[in-house]
Amino acid sequence: MFALQILIQTMTGYIKLRKKALEILHTELSEKLFYHGAHHTLDVLKVCNDYIRRLKINGRNAKLLRIGALLHDIGFTISNNNHEEHSVEIARKLMKECRFSKADFEVVKGLILATRIPQRPQNNLEKILCDSDLDYLGKSDFQPISNSLFKELQACDIITDRNEWNMVQIRFLEAHEYHTEFARKYRQPEKQKRIEELKCVVENTRQKT
User: Fold this and answer.
1) C-alpha to C-alpha distances, 37 to 23, 63, 134, 158, 208, nearest whole angstrom
2) CA distance 43 to 168
3) In this structure, are residues 96 and 78 in contact, taking their beta carbons and an 8 Å threshold?
4) How far apart are CA 85 and CA 75, in angstroms?
C-alpha cells in the first residue's frame, strides 16, 4: 500500500512538473532559438521514451529520465551561456514545488549536466539522455535539423558563413561519440555518412574558390 502511494505521488508530481516545464518552454524561450525550442525538448523526450520501452526501465528511473529530458535545455529561457547551470536551478525550483526528494533532484542534476559538451555521462541514465539529445546526428533528418541550428547560430551572431558552419560540424561530429549500445549500432554508422557528405561539400566549395 505504501509503495502504491509513493508511485501515485511520483506520477502526480511528474504530470504537474511536465505541465509547468512545457508552459515555460512554450512561452519564455527566445524566438531566435530555431533549434533549442520546445520542439527539441519534446523530440528528446520521445527518444528517451523509446529507450525506456526498449530497455524496460523501471518506474522511478523512467520518471527521472523523463524529467531530465524535459529540463535539460530549459536554462535557455535565462541565457544561451551556461544554460545547463541555469537548467539545474530551474529544475531545483520545479522539483521542490512538485515535491520531489533531494535525492531525485540530484539524479536530475546529473542528467542535465551530463549533456554539457563535451558529454561525460557517468551512469546509464545519463548515457541515454546524452544519446537522446544528439540522436539526430545519426538519423536521416540530420540536414533539416542541422539547418535549424545554423539558423539559430546566425540569429545569435555566432556563425554567419555556411562553409565555416560545415567545418564546425565536421569537427563536432568527429569528436562526438555515442554512449549506448543502441546508438553505437544504429546511429554511429549514419553519423559517419554525414561526416563524409560534409567533407565532400567542403572540398567542392574549396575547389570552386
Assistant:
1) 12, 22, 14, 17, 36
2) 23
3) no
4) 7
Measured distance CA(20)–CA(172) in Å, rounded: 33
Alpha-carbon span 115 to 112, nearest angstrom = 6
In terms of residues, how long is the chain?
Answer: 209
d(CA 60, CA 71): 16
Q: Which residues of the chain have pLDDT under 70?
A: 1-11, 209
Q: Which residues neighbour 161 within 8 Å (Cβ) at sequence distance 6 or greater?
A: none
Asked if residue 62 lies in contact with residue 52, where contact means CB atoms within 8 angstroms, the answer is: yes
Give residue-wise pLDDT tens across range 14-57.
999 999 999 999 999 999 999 999 999 999 999 999 999 999 99
- Give the amino acid at 22: L
Return the closest-CA partner of residue 35 out of 118, 119, 138, 141: 141
Amino acid at 66: R
Q: What is the DSSP letter of 119?
A: P
Residue entry with cell 562553409 = 163
